[in-house]
Amino acid sequence: MLMGMASILSSLNGDQYASCWLVLIGYLLDLADGAVARRLNACSALGAKLDDFADFTTFGIATSLLLRTESLLDNILCMFYVLSVFTRLCFFSSGIPFMYRGLPCIYSSAILACVSLLSGGNIVVLRITAVAMILFMISQSFYPHDRVLESQAWKKVVYAGGVAMVFCSSFPSACVYYLLWSMSYILFPASLWSCKV
Q: Are 58 and 3 in contact (CB under 8 A)?
């Protein structure tokens, strides 16, 4: 949640670069928080509600501000993005164990943050990407719910690579890494990211 709030403040202060990186760090932390809570036996109903609030803050509000300009249409797109995240978080649980209906907002936010960084904030590219991510989030497609840090060893290596990229890599290669990681979830959800793999 702190990464989301910091990203919101960065966007409001006009620092899109910092805002994007804070969303990507929030991406890593979101993948880890559940695993840490389960490892410490600290799971609770309050924790689940706080996780949803943190997801909405980071992957809804903070990410939508990457799309904000002076244009009324861009502001409407921001609102649609936030509403899509809200809908995704509230209503698109499939009822099938380890499956989601609609693309989880964490991946759409990572893609938007990477596209913003790689395109230099090109608003046309961001608009197209945002519309695609909205459609993926509200789709009826199934996506696996994989606990990356409690899964196969290679997925833990992917996660460790993401952490290393934040601290040890150059800007473009880190963005490409996160973009490929998130896109693989859209392109190969069952073959790569299913718990049964």
A: yes
